[in-house]
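User: Show me sequence and structure for the first protein, then do the same for the second.

Assistant: Starting with the first protein.
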Amino acid sequence: MKIVVYNLGCKVNQYECDSLVKALQDKGHDVKEDLEFADAYILNTCAVTNEAERKSRQCIERCLKFNKDAKIYVCGCASQNNQKQFLEKDNVQYVIGTANKMSLVDSFDKQGENVEEMPTVYEDDFTPSINRTRAYIKVQDGCNRFCTYCLIPYVRGRSRSRQIESVKAECERLAKLTKEIVITGIDLSFYGKDINTSFVELIKSLKDVDCRIRLGSLEVSLITDELLQALKDMKAFCPQFHLSLQSGSDTVLKRMNRHYTTKEFEAEVNLIRKYFKDAAISTDIIFGFPKESDEEFKETLAFMEKIGFMQVHIFPYSKREGTVAAKLPQVDGNIKKQRCKEAEKLAFRLKQEYLNSMLGKELEVLIEEKHENYFEGYSREYIRVKIKDANINEIVKCKAISVDDDCIIAEV
């Protein structure tokens, strides 16, 4: 049977999709990850925003344009949040939530829904395939934070961690098949608290893995001297830190139920730069959060400038029913759009400043594709780099010679 496994969400979802792909291939199915003609589609959905949930629903119609007789199977955060929105769609056979996703491999004869309660321990039944130049390894699931704007704790459950021995074994296996591994989870800062260990101990156990190691999104509370020294001791750590900020205003952070101040965030960024001078610092920021004033907006822009982020992912606030923030006074949609537009201009300038600061320096680039006259890939700092002479899936050392829009032109 020809099956498409399609990811509509985050890196954790991608890891789960990679595992579904491998399990289905092992059973003899022809499996693809891009939307095209297939007999069946497995959709791993997202619910982080209203827009993400809408796209998850729309994806069913996109599938049916390829094959009006196809059978659709749905899992993930959006179906955990509201399974009915999928069950009423044409050709949807079976709907589950975020638990027991690997059961879909043997569920093509099932109909209806089976949205289970979230597990209390980590489900360690994933074995991903390698279909790209970097691999993802999921080490943690769930969230305990209950930020006032977010549904994730309700659709992913409480934090639960994967045993260090299991993570290490998978890293060692994947290091023979790929040149870069991304350690990911829903909230890595909670790793280990339920199994009597810590994220630092996990990193120490991966010290000798012969492969580039990159970290997924981090909470700033995770940044300590001990962690940074452990990262520095690794064979090939990638010094890119995606620190989830959400706002550069302390009063907004308080309304969001984020447990840090901008002063604390800045201190941890400075600590990172003490260990990794040219580290790339990226982040996510929500604009137009309920009651966000002009002054609070300006505070966030000033903080973006102060930190000097390499990259800022900018989002307009998305109201999610069932969260505390949905009950607060909302910011006008046009104001949100204007604030995002202004923030995007600043984010672009900050990225240009960071890229220019890297000119003349040596970069180590993992080549991923060829586009027109250049081979393209990412440095350890997650800078997109273009090189004339290289090979796909090769790591090359090169010198940054010029900035081209949002990337660097380099010479071997």
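Switching to the second protein now.
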Amino acid sequence: MKKSKQLAILSICILCIIVGIAFYITPVSYFVMLPGEALDTSEYVKVQAEQPMEKGQFLLTTISLRRANVADYVLSYTSDEVKLLPESDILAKDESDEQYEQRQKENMMESQTHAIIAAFQQAKKPIEIKRLGVEVIGLVEESKSKLQKGDLIEEVDGQVIGKQEDLANLLEKKKAGETVQVRVIRSNKPINEQVTLVPLKGTNRIGLGIIPMDRVKVVTQPPVEIHADEIGGPSAGLMFSLELLDQLLPENLTRGYTIAGTGTIDMNGRVGQIGGIDFKVRAADEKGATIFFCPRDQSPKDQNEKIAKETVKQIGSNMRVVPVSSLDEAVKYLLKLPMNDTAVNDNTLTGLG
């Protein structure tokens, strides 16, 4: 009798362990977003010039995103720091997890290039921008396209293609089913391909059946480097630009404060919306940031400014949310701040309304 009871208890324990393991490893058709980190941008951005020792720092903010399991699904109903997102919100149609990761890496590379261009133009420092063409970073109609991932498109029907806008303008009056001659660089060799145009899903336009990305070569004086290979996506663009400016200009842009933020940036310094801003606000607050730059809400669909301000109230933070629509706007705000000569983590801002 005693032995039977022990066996029963052992069986229940084993069953609980099996259920527990299954609970954590069974995937669901969602991704889970979790709080990330606030990271010192000076660890990733280097200008090859002598840098003065300054108080204050700029922080880029991140989120953690991975495949959800059953445990995440349950926790999402009990915690504000676990958010489930449907696959369709993360992956493009027929996109694999690996292709998504690659797309995020490509977006980060483009973000770094845009950040450098925007910062040097803002600082009025020497910069040479050479457009190389449009690279194929993925195929959306693989069975119909002769183009390959990694191809660099230089010409279409004899017209030079320097950027995606050139390609869109050229194809604007063409129809699905028509063919165009595309000159690409593939494995360092020029190749001509006849490509059939296809409709772009969700739009009334046609295209080459590719996921395109502009490729440019940038030469600056002084030289700069950005190394952030472990971070994906385009949302660190604004903070990279601010860090570059802080190292390029004689002014201390941080004014002695810890300043976090997020936002995409284009070559002209325009700041765009990003995802997971509520978690990024939390990460910035935990790191003791005084100010949080976020993209300004400019259209009915924009939510970054609204969510950032709501999150600050929800967590009871003293951090000031500053919405901006451009790099220039962020710089002008910083230069109006009073200098903070106390401590890097001082969350007190005086002298401003």
